[in-house]
């Protein structure tokens, strides 16, 4: 994959101190153009510390792109991202939690070693992890309830465990902003509940979390605010304000079927087979 | 027992065999260690291309030194490092897909190398040495160069072990941790290039990729820890070199080919019998 690499410039620069007064995330007039088509258009919003936001939109709506730009992995075409008042390329407190399908699960590494990778930014070049780092990793695994799996090869984990391992890695990174790309997709209900329990702990620690999801119902029920995205920001706020029939139809077009249910509108989306959005 | 001993000792009375053995051991270790990252990052094709693409550099060295062997190492080294950096830049804003671009450049450079070498009369023997190696022609000076550069490569990998590990597992994490991702990527390419130059005389460019990939892939099947995988790959690489050299001595086959065939044999054994992952294991389970 191609990504912007700010590291040439930052190799000898230490991460910026946080501006305590600034919001944890502020995105202004963000445009991202990929091979001639707009992946994101004029996206602006801000997030408060400790908030839990669901990012909803059809496949190819730009959710992953938005996350990568915020993480400083990809450069915006125009516009600005500020994390705690500074540019993302200067922070090591932003964690990108990849989709499980994007990971090589045969990689010869144990759970503890994979979580330790999150510490590498703090440890610094050429140095080795010390006793404190190992204790930190243990504590992170403890938070996600996986201390007993520390020695397993990562391929031996269940889907939910894989996801929690990546959250532990983000914790080991001491991330204050976590961007999770569809962490709930493909998990059964008990595994999803495990993730939500971990999200509660993150809230208690003041960690801000953005979660990309396809599940409108879950987004409405389990998050502080929701974002509806399709290239443009169609809405950001409380589910009742954002998930309106007009907004949802704009987001999903013909692939969304709205059913009038007892307690509101039930949306049934069908985006699995479209490839490029219509 | 004494028969086996004699069998093992007999070839070693020749200085060229002794030098060859030292060379294959060093090459086996260096290639396997670097190759572990090549395998994990899925860079086998790139490694193969890199090996072939240094041929024109070696060829120019061959021409300017009038067929003398001494300067070839340095010409190869220069060519390899330049090619590594050039290959690293491929795919950034190119018009064709990355592997297509690598394929074009690799074949083009290889052809250029052959063309240059063929301009010398009676080139066939030397060309075959470049392509398939000439481990029995290793001079004491070559051994020193192999040793020194091999140690440099191993030292850099040891020093940046955690950086290369995370680069191989999750390149996005490298960027979000604000580690120098591009620098590490190019450095790894340069280390592959060094491993190739160090091994040039032992296996030649055409079989190089086997030394990089096969022992590492075999070790990958046998363990689930990266550190063990690397150690095991080094063991497999160097013992393949030793066994291959003896085979070449006793049954008179080309040494480079013999070494690679032994590597391949180890891989097939692992593929069939590796605990849990082996094909036979899976069937019976």
Question: Can you give a write-up of this model?
Answer:
The complex is a heterodimer of chains A (278) and B (285). Helices cover 30% and strands 25% of the residues of chain A. Chain A has ten helices and eleven strands. In chain A, a hairpin with a 1-residue loop joins strand 8 (225-230) and strand 9. In chain A, helix 5 (131-143) crosses helix 6 (159-172) and helix 6 (159-172) packs parallel to helix 7 (189-204). The longest helix of chain A is centred in the last third of the chain and has 16 residues, at 189-204. Chain A is globular and about 55 Å long. Chain B is an all-alpha fold. Chain B contains 15 helices and no strands. Chain B is globular and about 60 Å long. Classes of the chains: A alpha/beta (278), B mainly alpha (285).
Main attributes of the structure:
heterodimer; A: 278 residues; alpha/beta; Rossmann fold; 2 domains; six-stranded mixed β-sheet; three-stranded antiparallel β-sheet; disordered C terminus; B: 285 residues; mainly alpha; ABC transporter involved in vitamin B12 uptake, BtuC
